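Exercise: predict the structure of this protein bound to zinc ion.
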Amino acid sequence: MAPPETTHTVTDADDVLRRVFGYDSFRGAQQEIVEHVIGGGDALVLMATGGGKSLCYQIPALVRPGVGVVVSPLIALMQDQVDALTAVGVRAGFLNSTQDPDQRRFVEQMFLAGELDLLYLAPERLRSESTLQLLDRGKISLFAIDEAHCVSQWGHDFRPDYLNLSMLHERWPDVPRVALTATATQATHQEIAERLNLGGAKHFVAGFDRPNIQYRIVSKAEPNKQLLELLRSEHQGDAGIVYCMSRASTEKTAQFLVNNGISALAYHAGLDAGTRARAQSRFLREDGLVIVATIAFGMGIDKPDVRFVAHLDLPKSVEGYYQETGRAGRDGLPSTAWLAYGLQDVVQQRKMIASSDGDDNYRRQLTAHLDAMLALCETIECRRVQLLNYFGQSGEPCGNCDTCLNPPESWDGTVAAQKLLSTVYRLKSERRQRFGAGQSIDILLGKQTQKISQFSHDQLSVFGIGAELSEGEWRGVVRQLLAQGMLMVEGDYSTLALTPESGAVLRGDRKVLMRREPAKAARPPKQSRTAAAAVEELSEEAKPVFEKLRAWRGQSAKEQGVPAYVIFHDATLRQIAMQAPTSLQQLGTISGVGENKLAKYGQDILDTLGEALDRPGRAAPAEPPAELDFEEPPEDYPDEEPGDYFPPE
Ligand code: ADP
Ligand code: ZN
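Solution:
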């Protein structure tokens, strides 16, 4: 590890935090990380989304001499990241394939002249010798490797160019590196350390809990209606993301929401780059837009006020689920992670794994990922405890997830399981025919359908022996047996089949505990999660002031072509509305108001407050801010997305 080589002290870091970013104190492990990197040490940072990873490299880059080089796969977001830094007075630029040679040359010259604090680069840039030579000619303060889990080959966001990043250390052994990710199973953690050659790095593993997110997993009946009910009752007018597996269902669902008066857009890798860029840009800039997307959407989106993330299909892994849901509530305000999950999800995913390319080892990995996800869905314990355990951390029942708020019961499903497995066994012995879950359930319920009489299934000894459960409950039994590996699906028709585990259940050697869905979830708990909730906590007098400030912010953001949160976060505007500062000096003490923003917007804010509160004083004539030349974010995502492996519905 390189010895400390700077004359700066940590008070500089405090200074930067306060004066540039306008924050009073570091959060969690930030200070320790910042000090370590300023001292020249390598760091591997695992921190939940919204935990504050950016400052961990931005502040050292400002304190250490030279330019901080940030490697990020998020080309489409570089412009916004640079805008957000520019807004606080940090000199930032990026180099990626979207620029024309002149723009690129301009940034390169700034870099060489030492006129940048931070330079964002796409990982593929580092393949080219010319970029490497450029970096050689400048002074680099540190390398930040953002979204470091992209180096993990089995992970869900693998980027081959990340493997190449191990050379940073060989080529620039004295430049500290900080790798950051919000994805943190033990396996990924190890893999990042190994593949990025971070042997000597200090590891910082922050708590992974996101206490402001309420986790809820419901059983899927009519998913679109269930979603609509959620949005109408709890998230009217809120911005959110809805994830679906297939491209077709994103479009159908978006249309359904639009037909029901909700402003929604579809987003998937099959849309052309321009359409996607516009969708992303609108999501960042407009209030209350819902994006219905495949997983191609969202990585690195740092919109702080996403109020809900809904999944209409089962994610393939807990990692993916946690990362996707983590996009809700970065601002720390109450948010919802909601997933609808049903029998068909299990069937589809098991089938997809069975037919996937790749060797047995790969299929085993997929299965292990899916099993962990299913265990989360079927748990009767606190969801958060289970999630944290998965990431190797412990926790107490949280009081802010569906199982805590409305505990499901477990019931002894052994007999039901035996009945179902016997039926499957009898059907399986009819070698020529193949039947799915529906037929077994009809047999158990004793239904006289055409298919029952056609195959004389009413003659089976199991016919009609399951009338004690409803059709929905039987589907729950099938789903849970599939989830627990006591049943499997085979072939193209999703034929149910026994597994090696089934025998013990049939013989009565194994008890099967099942989860009973709680009757319709009680009204959402104490905290309401609407955008209005943020306003509700404000006093009566402060409310209209907050709304005025938001309107001012919306207008300024539009004029400058930046997302509203680049100007000020909701949390900052709320503080301003509540404290109603009367001077620039008072305004400057509010969290989120740094020197640059104070200089740029301070008077506007005071004027807006003056109008809102009917204070005497000058209302300066509104001077139109200079029009910034905003570029549409360009294409970013690889063409393929896992959702595409799904057969069309
Ligand atoms: P991450 O990259 O880990 O998801 P960010 O770096 O985007 O998180 O930070 C999340 C939010 O928290 C941002 O809005 C950021 O401005 C805010 N934040 C970060 N550190 C602090 C701090 N020390 N004090 C107040 N707010 C902070
Ligand atoms: Zn809980």
